[in-house]
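Students often ask why inverse folding is considered easier than folding. One informal answer: many sequences map to the same fold, so there is more than one right answer. In these notes we will look at a single instance of the problem. The structure comes first.
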């Protein structure tokens, strides 16, 4: 299902679009099919991993198992943005253009007639630099550049189709080795009634899970700004010339490179975090899963505090002052911040993620009544989805208040989540036993 959805998204649409309603509908259908396939895939996969640790022998290693599971998810996530950038930039270069992060907004502003004189001069200078052919008509250039730019992005989604095919083959080859709760258990016939708990205990467990889901919403609202406002910040306020990656004759340059930093840190840090918790476990000092999640919330608050302080002392202007579509002029490269501000922030947020995301999945696997394992894993993903749906809050703040204040509000959100988890700590630890 996901492969079909990616195929629909990979079909190029002309830019500027002659029929916005038609192509927006096609895009939404593709996104729905991807989401539907992911709904079938992800929650059940997490339930499957949890079943591997449903025995006393392996139960104490559940957190580590889910951390490894999470690490391998992110191995793919390292290469996904690089592949997308590579395909898009290859398509641009094939048509005689180079990538420039500020150009799409300037081109749209020019075509919409909202561009001012200063921004128009910037567009002319940038167009001359990125185009191999002489630019004689700025309207023609703007249409050509946007059309090639977006077509390259459409083709980049095609890479995911091959990834889905490989994933399906790996699953089918190894399917016989995965646990199945409906098969014979320890030589005895499977009894469906054996997995049911007392109604009171089921209610307690579900209540604890929904409480954690509620807290997780605010974390995901903050953390997944890495796909929205933090990416805007990378494109508009960060010196991307310091983030070039060259592979042969192809240069990978773009704000999307930052999307590979988080999964890279996940893969790099997971063995370190596992070793740290393993040592604590051997010494009988390993924190409970709810306690780890609370610590992760505090670390996430620290990550956004770094962004807030860095943005404040960089004296960055309001977003509308540099947005061509609102009459602004893109920020000069000399005034943009070092990419190390974002890299340090991503490092800190990744540590927080390793304390929350895989361990949250582990907590669900541990606490959910057996008959509701898949549904409750879906509940964790649902909380993630609600947090993602609220990402627009970050976009609204990003456009209306100073940048440093935007990050400060996420510091507050993560801090409130941390104290809420601490308040519920004893109850959650009791339910999880």
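Output (designed amino acids):
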């Amino acid at each position: 299902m996901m492969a079909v959805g990616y195929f629909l998204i990979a079909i190029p649409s002309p830019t500027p679009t002659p029929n916005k309603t038609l192509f927006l509908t096609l895009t939404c259908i593709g996104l729905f099919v991807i989401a539907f396939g992911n709904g079938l895939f992800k929650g059940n996969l997490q339930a499957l991993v949890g079943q591997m640790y449903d025995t006393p022998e392996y139960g104490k290693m559940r957190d580590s198992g889910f951390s490894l599971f999470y690490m391998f998810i992110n191995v793919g996530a390292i290469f996904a943005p690089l592949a997308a950038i590579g395909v898009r930039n290859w398509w641009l270069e094939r048509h005689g253009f180079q990538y420039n992060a500020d150009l799409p907004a300037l081109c749209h502003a020019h075509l919409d007639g909202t561009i001012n004189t200063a921004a128009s001069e910037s567009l002319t200078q940038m167009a001359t630099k990125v185009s191999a052919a002489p630019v004689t008509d700025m309207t023609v250039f703007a249409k050509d550049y946007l059309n090639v730019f977006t077509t390259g992005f459409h083709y980049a989604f095609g890479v995911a189709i091959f990834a889905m095919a490989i994933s399906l083959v790996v699953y089918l080859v190894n399917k016989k080795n995965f646990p199945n709760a409906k098969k014979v258990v320890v030589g005895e016939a499977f009894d469906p009634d054996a997995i049911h708990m007392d109604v009171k205990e089921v209610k307690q467990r579900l209540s604890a899970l929904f409480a954690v889901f509620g807290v997780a919403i605010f974390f995901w609202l903050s953390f997944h700004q890495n796909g929205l406002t933090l990416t805007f910040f990378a494109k508009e306020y960060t010196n991307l010339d310091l983030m070039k990656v060259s592979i042969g004759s192809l240069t990978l340059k773009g704000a999307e490179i930052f999307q590979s930093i988080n999964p890279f840190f996940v893969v790099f840090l997971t063995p370190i975090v596992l070793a740290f918790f393993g040592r604590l476990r051997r010494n009988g000092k390993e924190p409970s899963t709810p306690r780890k999640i609370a610590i992760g919330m505090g670390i996430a608050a620290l990550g956004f505090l770094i962004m807030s302080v860095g943005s404040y002392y960089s004296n960055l202007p309001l977003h509308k002052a540099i947005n061509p579509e609102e009459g602004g002029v893109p920020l000069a490269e000399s005034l943009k911040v070092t990419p190390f501000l974002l890299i340090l922030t991503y490092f800190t947020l990744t540590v927080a993620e390793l304390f929350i995301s895989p361990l949250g999945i582990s907590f669900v696997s541990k606490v959910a009544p057996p008959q509701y394992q898949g549904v409750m894993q879906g509940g964790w993903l649902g909380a993630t989805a609600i947090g993602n749906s609220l990402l627009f809050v970050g976009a609204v703040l990003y456009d209306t208040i100073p940048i440093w204040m935007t990050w400060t509000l996420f510091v507050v959100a993560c801090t409130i989540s941390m104290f809420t988890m601490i308040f519920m700590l004893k109850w959650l630890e009791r339910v999880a036993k």
